[in-house]
Amino acid sequence: MGSETPRQVYRYALLTRVSHWLWVLAFVVLVGSGLQIFNASPNLDASDKSDPARRVLAITAPAQGVGTTTLFGHTFVTTGWLGWTGDGLGSRGAHAFGAWLTIPGYQDLAGGRRWHFFFAWIAAICWLAWLISTAVKGNLKEMILRPGDLPKLWPMQAYYLKLRKEPPPHGIYNPLQKAAYTAVGFVIAPLVVLTGLALSPGIDSIAKPLTIAFGGRQFARLWHFAGMILLLGFFAIHTFQVATQGVVNQMRSMITGWYRVQ
Amino acid sequence: MKRRLFLATAASALAGCGPVSSALNQNETLKRILAAAEPLNHRLIGTRGLAREYRDADVDRHFRVNGFATPSDQHYMDLAADNYAGYRLVVDGAVERRRAFSLPELQAMRQQVQITRHDCVEGWSAIGKWSGVSLAAVLDAVEPRADARYVVFRCMDDDGTGNLYYESLDMHQARHPQALLALSLNDAPLDPDHGAPLRLRVPTQLGYKSAKWIARIEVVGTLATIYAGGGGYWEDRGYEWYAGI
Known about the structure:
The structure holds 2 protein chains of 2 kinds.
Chain A: E1 7-10, H1 14-39, E2 43-45, E3 55-63, E4 66-71, E5 74-77, E6 85-86, E7 92-93, H2 109-137, H3 140-143, H4 150-160, H5 175-198, H6 201-206, H7 208-213, H8 217-244, H9 247-255, E8 258-261
Antiparallel strand pairs in A: 1-8, 2-3, 3-4, 4-5, 6-7
Helix pairs in contact in A: 1-2, 5-8
Chain B: H1 2-15, H2 17-25, H3 28-34, H4 37-45, H5 74-81, E1 88-93, E2 99-102, H6 103-108, E3 111-119, E4 125-134, H7 135-142, E5 150-158, E6 164-170, H8 171-174, E7 180-185, E8 188-189, E9 199-201, E10 214-220
Parallel strand pairs in B: 1-10
Antiparallel strand pairs in B: 1-2, 3-4, 4-7, 5-6, 5-10, 7-8, 7-9
């Protein structure tokens, strides 16, 4: 009888669920508004001040109707995708990222900054609230990768690749999940916040070592962008995994908290 | 299948961001809500910090021109043609002693030098060597009254629609040790593109604070009555008055 009705476990606390979805919203807005801000000066330099000699990325329109992307000195024609893109008002123009990706869609640096700074606060407050509540409840240790997990990383990957029948023994989260959550939640996301702060002249004036640690203002802008790429990578893998491993059950558990176990 | 449907939904949700946010971006109530971050940033960062000072070797010899290029109106061109001999920096408003400084008078005051980075709101930065008169020294000379709260910089460049550029600082920011009324850039008098004969330098905030072509400094009790009340040309067009971030 018991085996016929699936057992449900309460997997995610309310605060975790609320902050998870607020993060989704904040992340989407931060990426879109960040690209809007990037468009105002679509170069990334590995230096303190702007320096074309140390340019890592440049997304430009060298001629009417042509978009190019130059990465580490290699130039690619990216017309329609990068450099020369839709302006959100019905025509194309010299915009690094197109209107369909930026927030707001049309060019508006002041608007992009408003969205960005507001949702930066939302994301940071959510992260702190979640961190404190999880730490107080003692659940944090379930998520953080420990030295003892390292030997289990490959066996877990081998299980995912179907090279192994059983996953290695683990707690609530498997070693790969722990590695991903630790990297994203405790390394990459904080670095994205810090690099964002480091490129502000006001923060530089009260915390010079921070800006210097990242190589200066323009370098901080480069790290901030690179951090976004890594977070997008996590977002893609995470979404793929949710979609392929019982999407209804996974989504339900992050909405109602209840996860069904067979 | 489910998976494909899910991915399609996710992709279209992402692609919808631009158009949806464009519509939301115009909403005045939402604008005010989003702008709530500005006082938080102001409080978090404050205005006490000192901008980093650099060495001579770090200077950009061809300092990128920020904002508008040389004003084209007749009044400015006449002043420039005469090498600014007729220029007077008027400092008035809520002060005990209204003053008008000629360029030689400003040059005779104690000159302060700073090699600082200019951080443009667009995202680029450049390093310049600036020298001129400390804003605090000029304020001391006019003795702001007790009701003085802001210092407004009124400039000579017209945007073509009759609006003159302007900027403002509160009294605390105006007395910041690095707030400079610059007369020269990289050991040469300012050229017209860089704000000749006199511009502001506020290296702890974004470049739009550092107004060029200043004609008048007005000490006021409120910003509300000046243009749209935002406290600056770009502030009236949606940018933050606190430009430290």
